[in-house]
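Entry 14. Structure prediction run on the chain below.
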Amino acid sequence: MSIRYDVRPVGVCGGDADAAVRQRAGGGNGAALRAPLLPAVTSPVQRPTGALGYARTMSILLLNLRHVPDDEAEEVRQLLQAHSLEFHESPASRFGISAGALWLIDEARAEEALALLAQYQAQRRDAARAALAQARAEGRAVSFGQLLRREPVRVIAALIVIAALIALCSLPYFLLRG
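Output returned:
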């Protein structure tokens, strides 16, 4: 037996919501066991509703801030503010489990926001590729050979660790193939 919790659609009081729940629960006569309906969230702010009439409580994820440099996150915030897009930021957790994120509040402007982010990321990608090409042309880009000459002990130690891990991972195959 499963318990089903449901929220009444915004603006509907009574029969229509109960009929919709009974229909989803598997019977039109209410014979299916289910938990009582929870009351709709009331607040002084008018909450937008989704296609089914339920109050939306989740925002749209625009940018996960894990491994995002501070300058890029700040540029994205400025871009969203420049285009009057309402967003909020969830902070990073104390222990690094969550890195934080930027969330769009208005679902109606999601396509506009995602298009702006795609355009911004394309510009940032092109700038990074141009900087790398310029560094290679000037001889400032570090290659594997240069790294091996500069730090031979570190590179050889890393290669030995990689080989040991590959051997350790393939050991069951050689032991169990008999």
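Residues 110-138 form the longest helix (29 residues).
Filed with the rest of this week's runs.
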